[in-house]
């Protein structure tokens, strides 16, 4: 309910009388009851508060305006937030200068860009941020906490936006932790036995960002593009879970875009890699137990130094809880020999059996715990990684369904055509979701995930997605990175700041040289289409404009880093 002075957020649960009041002038947050809502207020339906943010014009309230039901999770409804609204506390913008107005407009565009990204999920009654195994090992005090207090902060994407509400425990019921990633739920049947199959990918909000601007780890040991993926089975009251993780190679390295198709990865030569590396794995071992690293990068070319450095760090650390496996995915599967992935599965089969999975019976008795996780990575932790994760998850699911009595002895999941279709499509959808959130396009190699085969059409689609990635990574990812940094609180707007980072002027050549190249190339084509009096004259024109366009192109390519769309809000690590 909106008035010129206040926002009144009414709880609509049965029997609820609470109303959250936000003062649009003082920004004070208080609790009241429904009778205090003025009849003159403008009323609209919302489905949750995402949080508040301070921009140049002042504070803004972000609310969920549309939602889609994903399914029910042990009698808890899971929702996907599909639309949002950003409401200004201020009634007018007359207090802003023209420059401030423009900056505020840009910051709003950044916020709306993140809100337009697919993959925000929430529940009003269930903690989506924790795995089944973590939730089973909690105290009664933990169970009494609000969803916001008990949430795993790695996966609360609106944590920064909820900071003001977090400070007041009495209003926590209005503050919903929102997950970013992917969730799918399916009711399945094998041998006439019905079970729920669920896949959840939780993206970490620590060291979050886009493909080429966020690589490696930070000083706290947080890895770029870290995702926890949990596969869950619910059958006749029993629940089984298998968890895997993915994350960037945990070293200090970068791969800044420079117009080349694959920029050269650079490892920092002066940083103390062991410090961040150990912090990363210390936290992983505390949370998940044993770590089985599956490194899928190429063992030759530009990726080779990263593979060697990763192996060396594991060896130097000498931690018995960590095992390292290098598998050159592209080499082993070249010429579309994807059947050779069985080499890796056979290599880790015994280890996977030792790690086991989480299983609890209908009475709540824990029958087995997962003792560790596979931590898979490639360069982006997207395409190759998702293929391997889907195969490991299927092997675990085979064991779970046999133990639960859904599969008969000797039966294979691969033989269950109806379920296999659901399974493969869900993992391909998971790949696409993670890829769009990090790289800006759908995943590569999803034809194999969906069909079990590598196809010519799949290769063509991979080429198209690679082309889109190239464009976005070079010409729009700076804005995308700034948007994420603003949303997560890595950058805070200060309207009193004398020099806005948005006001940094572009170098003249940023626009001039590309324009010259386009004009020269266009003239070259025009000269071909409109021949002169003689072929000699036409050839001379074509050569002149052709050399001009190609020459300008190579000037741009040589100075590629000057022409990419770089972030402006937060200075990213630059490794020379």
Counted by DSSP, the helix tally is 16
Radius of gyration: 27 Å
Shape, per Cα inertia axes: globular
SSE-based structural type: alpha+beta
- Work out the strand percent: 15-25%
Distance between the termini: 54 Å
Average pLDDT level: 90
Query: Which residues sit in consecutive blocks of at least 5 with pLDDT less than 50?
Result: none
* Structural domains: how many: 2
Task: Let me know the number of strands.
Answer: 18
Instruction: Please outline the major beta sheet.
Output: 13 strands, mixed
Helix content: 25-40%
Domain SAC: 111-440
GO cellular component, one term: endoplasmic reticulum
Pfam family, one: Syja_N
GO molecular function, one term: phosphatidylinositol-4-phosphate phosphatase activity
Short description:
With 576 residues, the protein is α+β, with helices and mostly antiparallel strands.
How is this structure best described in words?
GO terms for molecular function: phosphatidylinositol-3-phosphate phosphatase activity; phosphatidylinositol-4-phosphate phosphatase activity. This is Phosphatidylinositol-3-phosphatase SAC1. InterPro entries: SAC_dom. This protein has helices spanning 98-116, 132-136, 140-144, 147-150, 163-166, 273-288, 304-317, 329-332, 341-355, 383-404, 417-438, 446-451, 456-475, 477-488, 508-529, 535-558, and strands at 6-10, 18-23, 29-33, 48-55, 58-73, 76-88, 120-122, 179-190, 193-203, 227-235, 238-246, 253-254, 266-267, 290-295, 322-326, 358-360, 366-368, 372-377. It folds into two domains: 120-488, no CATH class; 508-574. Helix 1 crosses helix 14, helix 9 crosses helix 10 (383-404) and helix 15 (508-529) packs antiparallel against helix 16. Strand 10 and strand 11 form a beta hairpin. The chain is built from 16 helices and 18 strands. The chain is globular. The relative contact order is 0.10. The mean pLDDT is 90. It starts with 5 loop residues before the first strand and ends in an 18-residue tail after the last helix. It is 37% helix and 22% strand. Strands 4, 5, 6, 7, 8, 9, 10, 11, 14, 15, 16, 17 and 18 form a 13-stranded mixed β-sheet that branches. The longest helix is centred in the last third of the chain and has 24 residues, at 535-558. The protein has 576 residues and is α+β, with helices and mostly antiparallel strands.
